[in-house]
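Worked example (supplementary).
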Amino acid sequence: MYNNVMVNLTREDVHRLAMLSKITIAEDEIAQMQKDLDSVLAYVEKLQDVDTSNLEPTNQVTGLKNIMRNDEVIDYGMSQEVLLSNVPEVEKNYIKTKRVL
Amino acid sequence: MNSKWLPINEIAEKVNNGSLSATDMVDQALKTIEQNTEYNAIIVTTADRARERALQIDKLIKSGTNAGMLAGVPFIAKDNFLVFGAETTAASNILKGFKAPYQATVIEKLEAAGAICVAKANLDAFGHGGSTENSDFGPTLNPHDKHKVPGGSSGGSAAAVVLDMVPFALGTDTGGSSRQPASFSGCVGYKPTYGLMSRSGIIAMASSTDTVGVLGRDVTDVAYVTECISGKDPLDSTTIESDPAGYMIDKPLKDLKGIKIGLVSEYMTDGVDPDVKNKIEETAKQLTALGAEVIPVSIPSLSLALAVYYILVPAEISSNLSRYDGQRFGYSDPNAKDLDESYTNSRTRGFGKEAKRRIMIGTHVLSSGYYEAYYKKAQLVRTKIINEVHKTFQSVDYLIGPAAPTTAFELGSSTQDPLQMYLADIMTVGASLTGIPAIVIPAGTVSGMPVGLQIMSPQKSDKSLLEVAQLAQKEINK
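After joint prediction of all chains, the assembly is encoded as:
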């Protein structure tokens, strides 16, 4: 299935990716975005021909495993007030969002 | 480079013995920042807090207390480090107004050692770029030629060091973001072994390659700062133990006898500016004169590194940037009708073009039906690159090459073509994907513009890398 994954993105693809990314791309910017994404996808296409049999994927490079700590409360000296000071809308110490439905 | 600053250890020593004051050091830094505003290297100063801390340090010393190994040393942090005393924006509109509720671990470590942050440096928003043009605060200009870029994304930090604002600056390096601007602007830029310095409190770009970067005038200073900020951090579970021998260069090398250095053929192809190539070959000869054996080595899979990088990194970016949703911090559309519209409008207006491009590429390569072909394939090729690099280090001790295929390019020349901009990272992403340390030192100029020599070494061999780089810089400067 690695062969020919490269298909040029359609306008619909760009719309779909924007929707999944929770970003709006204006109608008059779609064509440029399509071109930009296509050029990057065309460049990375060369990986498809690389022989990677008998290799494991790399997720991380430190070799560290399961870094655990005790399940206890640590005081980082941060007040609720400071932590909430960057929140756009606060009500009674809750983060307020717009309605969901 | 000529500098009005003493070596960092001497500044700290003199501040500690009272012959210099921390207040004077901070004033000198702020004055130089003020004199160079035209370069737009700085987003904001932390002047009030810096002066306050300087007073405290001076008072502490008057009372007979040692204020630390960096007492009174001013520095500048890239604006993706959480720092008190000013907003932290990552040069992005979406974070305008954001005030750090805590500080990055490395900032805490520097402050504990007596260093003083005086300003936040400009960058490509969120670290996305190789020229610092992609900043929502406008581009930074190259200190050697105002029509050229300083490199990026830590272009503000590199320019700040070269403009002599401070003795050292912090950057970050995900695919070359400290090394390439060091090369373009003409200073030292060091990316440690992945995990050596905590990323807690640094705005994440691509977590599997993000590192702190240290920029300075010379390797001695950079090693001195490294000593202070390395090591395990309970707040960043990806950190590793630092070298028990430390990183300060106590006994500088006198020669490179018995050392084998590989000049990477993949970084010396026809695509590289011939003048840059000549410079690198000249420096290779200087290393030979010091007693090193320099031989050409080929690491074929390095030519695939950029393609791997531009799959894995956008994937990680799309994940890391999903936290910018307009609810807990950052820009939020006040008029959105419902939660979904609030997410979408806040992100659409808050993010710049490049962040959007990378989020969408990342979303594409991670989406079902494409994941195996793009993301997983890139992870497999990453393994291939790591294996080849490790194998090469069985026959040579260090690798060298340029840090970029050209010297600094003209402002505006690559901004319309994202792929062209990505190519600026082609010689730096290899070390990022493999997690090995790499350092760029100035290697002279071509038509007045700096060229950098990149030196790489095996994982966790940072100390010896710094020692070799120090001697190399001394020899090149002769």
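Two points are worth noting when inspecting this output. The mean pLDDT of chain A is 91. The longest helix of chain A spans residues 27-44.
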